[in-house]
Structures are given as C-alpha cells and as structure tokens.
Amino acid sequence: MNSFRFYLRLSACICGLIMICGCSSAVSSGQNTALSGVDLVKMTDDMAMKIAASPEVQRAYKEHGPLKVVVLPVENQMRAEVLPRGPAEMFVGRVRTLLSKHSPDEFVWIMNRDTWYALRGRELEGVEPGPAPGAINPEYSLSAVFSSIADEDTEHRSSYYLCRYELTNLADRTVLWSGSYEVKKIAVKGFGD
Amino acid sequence: MYTVRKRYVGRMSCYLCVSVVICGSLGCESQNNARIVEQSVNNYYDGNFPAAIDELKPLAEKTNEDFVVNNLRLASAEMAPYRLDDAEASFLRAIEVINSTGVNNGGRTLGAVLVDEKIKVWKGEPFERAMASYYLGVIYYMRHDYQNARASFENALFKLRDYNPDRPNDSKDVDSDFAPAMLMLAKSYQRIGRDDLAKANFQAVTDHFPALEALANEQLNADSNLLLIVDFGVGPRKVANNDGAVVGFRPLPHEEGRIPPPLVYVDGATTNSLQFARPPVDLLALAQERRWESIDTLRAVKSAVGTGLLIGGAVAGVNGLNSTGSRQRTDLMVSGALIGAGLLLKATSQADIRQWEMLPRTSFIVPLHVPPGTHEVAVVFPGGVKQVWRGLVVPDKGEATYYFRMLRWDNGPFNWPPVGWMNSDLAP
C-alpha cells in the first residue's frame, strides 16, 4: 500500500511538472534580433543627451533663438527587418519628448506634414490640428536612418545595426548635429527553430 | 513475491494514469479549437471572410502553441477583403515569433519529445515562413512603403535559402529558390530608385528561373502602373502516413496538373498578360523539398519501438494463454505492460500536421500598363475560376497594386473600394 501511494504521488508530480513546463507563452520566451524597447530607451537617451550638449546646437540657439524642428519618422534601410510606422515614429519621437522635457526653451517642435494630414483625416471632435503645414515652416529636421547587416542560416540569425540621427538645416542642407548608435545581436537557433 | 507483484502493479497503474491525464488534458481543448479552425478555413474558401475573421480572432489572441499558425490564418482572412491594417498586425505578430529563437526551450521541447509534438510552438515549414514575409511585403508594397516591402522580401528569402553541401562551410554564396520574393525585391528596389540593385535582382531571377525571363523584364516592371498579385489554387496539405509517424505533403504537382496562366481583361479587352504571366512558384513542388529533421527521426524511432513492443506484448500474451498457473499470470502481466508501453509510444509518436491552410498553390505577379483612370479588371482561369473588380483606380504616376485571392465560389463583381478599405490609410 505504501509503495502504491508512493507511485501515485510520483505520477502526480510528473503530471504537474509536464503541465507547468508545457504552458510557457509563445511570446514570452525566446530571443529576437530585432531592435527592442531596451534599444529604444538607450538609443534615444543617448541621442537626446548629445543633441542638448552639442556646441553647434547651442551656438545656433544663441544666434537665432529656439530652433524650429520638424520630426521625421525613421527611414528603414535595415536588411530583412521591417520597421512599422508606430516604432518608426517612436524612435525619433522619444528624442523629441526628452528634449522638450530637458531643453524646453531651445526647440520649437513642428508636426510633420504626414502626421498633420493623418490627424485631420481622423476628424476628431474637439481636436484642432493647428495651422496647415504650409503656414509654419520648420528650419531644421530631426531624422534618422536605420541600417543593418543581417544574416540567417540553419543555426543562427544575426544582425548588426547602425542607427544614425541627424539635425539638418533645411535651408542649406547642412548637418548641424549627427550621432549614431550601434548594436549587434545574435540569436542561436534551437529545437523547433 | 506477493509484495513485489503489488509494487509492480502499482508502478504500471500509475504510469497509465500519467499517460491518460496528459493525453486527456491535451486532447479536450485542441478538439474544440480544431473544429473552429476547420469552420474558419471553410468560410475562407467560401469567400465568407468576416465569419472566418470572427472565428479566428479569439484563437489568434491566445499566446499558446498555435499562436503563429492562428495569426497567419487570421492574416489571410483579413488580407483578402483588404483589411490591410489588421492583416499587417497579424502578420507582424506571427513573424516576430517566427524570427525568434529558443521559443521552444525548456518544457515545450521536453513535452514535444516525450508526449506530443503539438506541444511545441508551431513556426511552420520554411515555405510557410517565407510566404508569411512575402505577404507582409505585398501589403507594404500596396501601401507604397517600399523600404519595408524590401525588408520583408529579404526576410522571405532568408527563410528559403538553398544550402549546397558541396560548397565550403564558410561560403556566403547561397541561393534562395523563392522567386516571388526575388521578383518583388527587384520591383521594390525599382520603386525606391535603386535601379542598380533592381537590375541585379531582375537578372538574378532570370538566371535562376529562365522561365520567368519575360516577367523579370526591367522595362516591363518600370512601365507598370497596375500590378495584380493573384493567388490561385490551394496549397499543399500536410499528411501523415498510416502509422501517423511520418509526415509529408500532398498532392504532388503532377497529380494536380500544370498551373494555368491567368487571362486578364481590362474593361472587357484582353491584355498582353499571357506573354509573361508565369507562376513564379509552385508550393506543391516546394513542399516536396521538405528536409528531414531530427524530430522526424525521433518520431520514427518511437513509432518503430512502439510497434516492436506491441508485437512483443502480443507474443507474450499468446504464451500466457497457452500456459498455466503462476507462469501464466507472469506472462499476461508482462504482455499487458508491453502492450501498454507500446500503445503509449505509438500515441506519443504522432506527427504534428498543423499547417497554414489558406496558402494558395501559386501567387502570380502581373505587371500591366493601362491608361490612368478607373477600370474594370477581370482575372479568369480555366474551369470557371474568375474574379471581377469594378472601379479599380490606376494613378497617373506610380503603380497601384491590387490583391486577388481566386476562389471558386467568390467571383464578384466587386466594387472598389471594398468595405475594409475605409480603415486603411492607403490611397492608390
């Protein structure tokens, strides 16, 4: 009887272990070589800090007052990695947010034309999208280009990213400030990959 | 002796309980989901996309082992009626997991090997992964987001790389045998303005697939202002042999016959599509290139050992029936244990035949040049399969892309824009 009870307990443990181990979510485990939220925060913190501290930016502010800047979404030149519209706006939008918070006097942010038309297209009640894009001309653009070298085979997937940001004078196309962020990611394939 | 036998009976009973509990708990919910999936696939092929979407949406939200396949099914059902925002989101969710590694680490690997292969998170065969990225690329191409389209087609090519074992290990020169993605990659480069890369990729299509030379003509694609992506037929079906342990794809290409070319009519007049509209891929043929994996070996070995145990158990049982006394009892107990173990191994060596049922046999890429304006476009295949759209807009500049999922019971005529179009921000 004792051994019978022992084997019953053992079988219950085995059942429980297999049930619990088999229940991990499809999206919570594993590694991905795409740019993640961690990269977003690190990258944009770094870029915002560098823009604010840039001597050229400070000089331009002192000479001409607050810089009128339009924010453009990221241009995707990455290999085999898509960048949907939301993240493409977020990777530059967060830099704008940080600069608005920490250097509010140095920049005036102009909504870009596509966003203005999208907002007007939604016909949101009580929301005035502001003057038409042609009414306020930005002087600078804050833009980014993400490129990568990527490869994938039966054993792994790897990507090396170079994310370049630029603050460009729209009048003469000179680059007032530029910065970059680099990261390499490798994911090794396992069972079922 | 009596104590030893009791201990033995106790052990065997408990192992049987374990198996029953595991198999039972896995079986109940999956049976119900299988019914819903079957119903949604039927609705899809009947052209009842809203019903298919309603059935698949709750399944696609569950982050279980069917997360990827349900999102791909949902994406197909959303793409056909031009719910492109929703289809993009569904494809992105699926592709994120497809591109991830180690998704099955730990418990799912153990479960798939010991218990049921369907415990592992389904990520699809290479051609299914490639088609997922291909369709996402088509969506971006339709939206004129050519950089994201390019990236998606590159990802599709990653999924179907052809490794030549005769090449040195460090050779980077591998081919991809996925012509639709190669062609659309070339077109994306053309739209981005990288004519050098477009030319190189069109040439690569011609080099690898001489039958597509006319379709991969650089000028033909540069002049195109109306691109039709036409999905035709039904893709391969994953089937298991009688034993359930060995998996393959059916039907074979020769069983279904050659893929007919589409006849395209614009405002009732024939176009020159027959000169270049060749099927860039035959998924029935591509599915036959399935590589034998280690899980296939494991499954085959388990099944073979299970068969052996069943035979051994049967022999022991016959011996037991022919003997008497304690010898008979022993033989019958051994027979029971062997048969039980054999059944267990057979039950846990069943192949995983989950698949993306909405895939077509092929996806035609038909670049046309027509006068700008609105047109009625009809795509006709032999046997009565056709689809008609009225009011398709062709721009003065650039290229408008339209997706046709050819279904026997859903011919149209349909009017542009479709109901789902109002939610998308794409203007042709």
Structure description:
The complex is a heterodimer of chains A (about 190) and B (about 425). Chain A is elongated and about 90 Å long. Chain A has one domain: Rossmann fold (3-Layer(aba) Sandwich), CATH 3.40.50. In chain A, strand 5 (about 155-170) and strand 6 form a beta hairpin. In chain A, strands 1, 2, 3, 4, 5 and 6 form a six-stranded mixed β-sheet that branches. Chain A has about 190 residues and is α/β, with parallel strands linked by helices. Chain A has helices at about 1-20, 35-55, 55-65, 85-100, 115-120; strands spanning about 65-70, 75, 105-110, 140-150, 155-170, 175-190. Chain B has about 425 residues and is of the alpha+beta class. In chain B, helix 3 packs antiparallel against helix 4 and helix 7 (about 145-160) runs antiparallel to helix 8. Among the domains of chain B are: about 225-290 and about 350-428, Sandwich (Immunoglobulin-like); about 300-345, no CATH class. The model of chain B is unreliable at about 170-175 and about 425-428 (pLDDT under 50). The chains are: A alpha/beta (about 190), B alpha+beta (about 425). At the A-B interface, helix 1, strand 2 and strand 4 of A face helix 1, helix 4, helix 5 and helix 7 of B.
